[in-house]
Amino acid sequence: MKKILITRKLLKESEEKASKIFDVKFNSNDELYSQSKLIESSEGYDAILTSLTDKMDKETINKLPDSIKVISNFAVGFGNIDLESAKKRRIAVTNTPEVLSDATAEIGILLILGACRRVPEGIQSAKESNWKWSADYLIGKQLTGARLGILGMGRIGQKIAKIAKALGMVIHYHNRSKLGEEKEQGAIYHDNLKSLFSVSDVLSICCPATKETENLINKETLEYFPTGAVITNVARGDIVDDEALIDALNRRKIYAAGLDVYKGEPNLNIGYLKIKSVFVLPHLGSATKYTRTAMANLAIDNIDEFFKTGNCRNKVN
Ligand code: GLV
């Protein structure tokens, strides 16, 4: 039986599944391992099932024992893992694509609705009972007829496009390459950011965090948007230059933001908390029982497949 280290607590059913296939070391109190604890705990193990909270940087990967052959990330994003260092050490890295697209797209839509319809202000007023109906009370932005720009038209972007279209939004997108007609579903392709942002009343960030996308929403690119645009991010915090977005929100260049992901999670830039029109969630993208179970099953199966065949469909390095 292969020995695997699972760095964070999984749902009960998933831990049971893992125990049937592997000799598993669990993290029963779910404390985030320090880099040294992670290295020490993987001594004598064949694989590590990591979560997005584990920072598998170059230094950590270089110190892993030679026995580790696979790092199976319990996430579709793998910005927490230095792929190159893993490759140099012949450690396969895998992720969990597809299974979380629907749940994450739901949160993507929630961010759009929450930011456009002033949900944070509404919740606060309702709870404090300090509101009274009037014709101009908490007027927000209507989605019907608004243009939604999707940055990164992968599976999550496509699902957001589908739901947003049903809400009456007009879909524009930018992606590394233009999609075929069937996947596009009538969405309008832009081959550069400036062109996309200049027609985006609302932006949904759905692209992976890479060196190329780091701080892609910044002081300069924010100026491309129509005044009063709404920015939402269901992907990764690293894509946004927080100070630039906070400044644009304070100047009302940007009307509102809806954010589920942040640089340096779980902390978020305090500047966001001071702005009434910022709708924040604590990284809930894939947080449904169905999806977290499917993700864990896939992360476990990825390790199993790798040891059985020497390869894995979801290998990313
Ligand atoms: C969630 O954020 C993921 O990347 O799976």
Short description:
This protein is of the alpha/beta class and about 325 residues long. The chain contains 13 helices and 12 strands. Helix 1 packs parallel to helix 13 and helix 5 packs across helix 7.
Task: For this entry, give a set of tags.
binds glyoxylic acid, Rossmann fold, globular, 5-stranded parallel sheet, 317 residues, 12 strands, alpha/beta
Largest sheet composition: 7 strands, parallel
Give the radius of gyration: 21 Å
Briefly, what CATH class of the largest domain? Answer: Alpha Beta
Measured distance between first and last alpha carbons? 25 Å
Strand order of the largest sheet: 8-7-6-9-10-11-12
| SSE series | EHEHEHEHEHHEHEHEHEHEHEHEH
Structural class estimated from helices and strands: alpha/beta
CATH-wise, what's the superfamily of the largest domain?
Answer: NAD(P)-binding Rossmann-like Domain
Q: Could you name the ranges where pLDDT drops below 50 across 5 or more consecutive residues?
A: none
Please indicate the count of domains: 2
Quote the CATH topology of the largest domain. Rossmann fold
Percent of residues in helices comes to: 25-40%
Mean pLDDT: 97
Q: Which CATH-level-2 architecture of the largest domain?
A: 3-Layer(aba) Sandwich
Q: What is the helix tally?
A: 13
* Residues in β-strands, percent: 15-25%
Bound molecules: glyoxylic acid
Q: Please report the total strand number as a whole number.
A: 12
Q: Which overall shape is indicated by the principal axes computed on the Cα atoms?
A: globular
